[in-house]
Amino acid sequence: MITSPSSLRRSERSRKATLEAALELCTEKGYGRVTVEAIAARAGVSKKTIYRWWPSKSAVILEAFTEALVGTTPFADTGDIAADLRANLAGAAKLVSTPPFGPAYAGILSEMHHDDALAQTVRAKLVDPRFDEAVARLRRAQEQGQIPPDADLPLVVEMLYAPMYYRHVLRKPMQDEGEIAALVAHVLRAIGVPPEP
Predict the structure, then answer these.
(1) Could you give the domains of the chain?
(2) For a tag site, which of 76, 80, 114, 151 has the least CB within 10 Å?
(3) Which three-class secondary structure state does DSSP give residue 13?
(4) The whole model's pTM is what?
(5) What is the C-alpha to C-alpha distance for residues 56 and 51, in angstroms, rounded to an integer?
C-alpha cells in the first residue's frame, strides 16, 4: 500500500498531538494518573492509533521527553569544552526542572524501577545514546588538546551528569548556572585541565 503525502502529514500531526497530550496530562494529573485513554481523548486520536505506534503509556511519554531533550540540549562544539559542557548541563537542568518535562521524566524514572522492559528501553533510547554523544564530545576535546589524553571519559560524563539526576530523583532544587559552572570547573580540574584564565 502506498502512503500519500497527505496521510503522512495527518500521521505526523497525530503523533505530535499525542506526544503533546501525554506531556500536558503528566503536568495536570501526575504521571501515575495518566492513561492511554486520556492521552487519546486529549490528542483527538483513537487508542488503536496510539497502540499502533507505541506499546504503552510510558513509551509515549519517553518519546516526548527524549525528543525535547535532544532538541534543546545538543552537544555543541564551539571549540571551548568548558563552555559547551556548561551550556549542555544548563539546558538539561532547565528541561528536567520545568513542566511538562520534569513531571514526565520523574514518572518515567519512578516506573522503570518496577518495569524491567521500560528500564531497558530508557537505557537504549535515551541514556545510552546521550551518554555516547557526551563521550564523543569529550573525545573531540581530548583530540584538540583541551582534555588530558589519559582522562577516563565515561567517568567524566558520570561525574558531570550524576549530580543533576541525584537532585531530580530526590526532588531537590536543580543547579543554577553558577553551580553548574562550579561543577564543570571542578570536574575539569579533577582530570588535570588547567583552570580558565
Answers:
(1) 5-54 (1.10.10.60), 60-190 (1.10.357.10)
(2) 114
(3) helix
(4) 0.84
(5) 7
